[in-house]
Give the backbone structure.
Amino acid sequence: MNLQAEIDPLTKLAIRHGTDKWGPHFYTPIYHELFAHLRDKPVRLLEISVGGYGFRRVGGASLTMWADYFQWGTIIGLDVAEKELNLGPRVTIVQGSQADGVFLAKLAAEHGPFDIVIDDGSHVPEHVTLSFNTLFPALTAEGFYVIEDIQTAFWPQYGGLPADGGHTFKLAQSILEGLNHVEVGIAAPGCKTLPMAASIKSFRENMRELGVRGLAVYCLNHPCRHQTVISADDYADDIEVPSFRLCMKCTKCGAGTWTCARTGKNRRRSGV
């Protein structure tokens, strides 16, 4: 077996540049699957965090990886620390805090719209939520928004909550509600969803990595009102939550599509 041939192009670049997006996390094969069709496009990618902590001349491994992967792309790195790195003409580093909504809005106005936003920043749940709410509207129509290291949602030292994942998982729940905003509106008229709900086209995460242990499933036939709970353990690891959106019928009345909601967490695993 030719192991070199089995490694995708982005992972090869991650290894070459020494970014932890391969190795500690194994994100790059997933990213290659998602972004391969954009490689020859003039994409605009924003990554929150340059790396290297407070050292001015340390970091930038993932930015150079992205610049090599998207050879026609523009790469913007945001870091709270001042950086003195020359990573080539297509890479720009901006100093600022993802906890500052006004700054993020200005960043989006000056450098957006973005085809890809990757939040690898502080991992503080409140910062994650603020960044999403500010930067998601700055995505292109077919853009991707990625949140890394969501296990910190359960770590108190990051402001997370071991019991339920706090702000980060409330955000995940609101995204799922936004993805199903039409169905939510039918089942609960007047229920508020994310302002950008109509712009959300998919939510990629397998059930266990998201922390889902079960899904509450509701019949949309109002006279029936039947509901049940299905266990994540009954399905393969690669089943994604949105896959259930249109594939079920009520076992009581046989009507329509069911909607699904998260009912529990498994804190043993985390995902991109």
